[in-house]
Amino acid sequence: MPCRNRHAPGAEPMKRNLCILLLLLSAIVGAAAAAETSSAEEQIAVTGVTVNPDALMRGDTGTVTVEIKNTGETGVAISRAELYPNGIAVVNDKTYDSVGIIGPGNTMSFTFTVQANTADGIYYPVFYLDLRDSGSVRYSVPVTVESTEIRVNVVDAPETYPANSEDTIVLSVGNPRGSSVSGVTVTPTGEGIRSTQTAVFLGALAPDEEKNASFRILASQSTDLTFDVSYRNGNNEHHATLTVPVEIGERTVEPDMVVNNIEVSQSGSAITLTGDVTNAGLKDAYSVKVTVDSPATATDPYPVYVVGGLESDDFSSFEVTCNAQGASSLPLLVQYKDEDGKTFSETVTVSLSSAGQAGTAGRAPADISSGGPQGGREGMGMGMSFGSGFGQIPVVEILLVIIGGVAVVVAWRKGYLGKIRDRFRK
Questions:
Q1: Are residue 294 and residue 177 in the same domain, yes or no?
Q2: Which range, of 14-23, 153-162, 183-192, averages the lowest pLDDT?
Q3: Is residue 19 part of a domain?
Q4: What is the Cα Rg of the chain in Å?
Q5: Which residue among 60, 217, 232, 262 is least crowded, i.e. fewest CB within 10 A of its CB?
Q6: Contacts of 138 (CB under 8 A, 6+ apart)
Q7: Domain ends where: 246, 277, 309?
Q8: In this structure, are strands 343-351 and 378-380 parallel, antiparallel, or unpaired?
């Protein structure tokens, strides 16, 4: 029998079923692949972002650290990680060009170095994670640029500085930034300036925190005193400066001794001086003593009258005994110390022919402990007088002698003296 090329019964339906089966398998594989891709992206979570320092100043270099975690049950292959600048310069953008696989439950961190070569503001560089099998993760990181500097101000400083005399200057250092700074150090400099502290370390300053720095300054000339304040924002060092003018001159607020109500009592060569000493300065005086200077010689019982401490506007009485043979006047010497222990003296010239005098004196530094010379301004004794020359005549004494003589003559003529003599004989 001749062979015929004829389809077997039922061949066409089988062919259609096979095609349908292949299509279903292809759809299942595609869906599984899509599900696997979606699952890999969903497994990666950004669990932490750290920017150091919290706020960069213009020109600062800092770091941005992003931490991720694989929250799934299978490993995820990561091709690379990047931080797209978006206004902030990224220094190490090629560091994570090849990463690897992050296992289930594991964490991984990526640190990028950034630089704030831009204006103040908030910028959002984008963290990008490229997954090897397909898909990616993106996360925006806020980075703040704030160039506000710390503030330095004078809290207390004298208007004038006596030459080579120690004075105190107090500064306040405040942090108006929204982030903390560290390593705050204040250093004084200036021509002709010496300081007992080469620098004062204040440490860290939190936002809106303020600390004081005190310096003991000795100036030998009028000059500019500059305070350099160094501090760190992250690892970046910054400086703030403050210049304070220093003027050499007499101090009006220091203790100033004024002598008043001087009274002179003289018996032969022995002289007693009494009066009041007042501190007219704005600062307290210490170890106040009153005595006499050459040509007078201090004698007992009060060669030196010790007043002790005198507060501002306070006074004390004194009594000094001395000998000034042949002198028509003598210097009354007031010695005292300031709060730093430096010794000063003031001198009042007292006339021995007048009573009820008052005097004031200037002030000059002296270093008694080291044997240095003493100095002072001499003040003129002030009191009642009858004019040049005539004030030297003892008018009261002469009148008393005349009255006494007249009384004796009258008593003799009346016979009173004879009666008194006869009474004593009986």
A1: no
A2: 14-23
A3: no
A4: 49
A5: 232
A6: 126, 127, 128, 129
A7: 246
A8: parallel
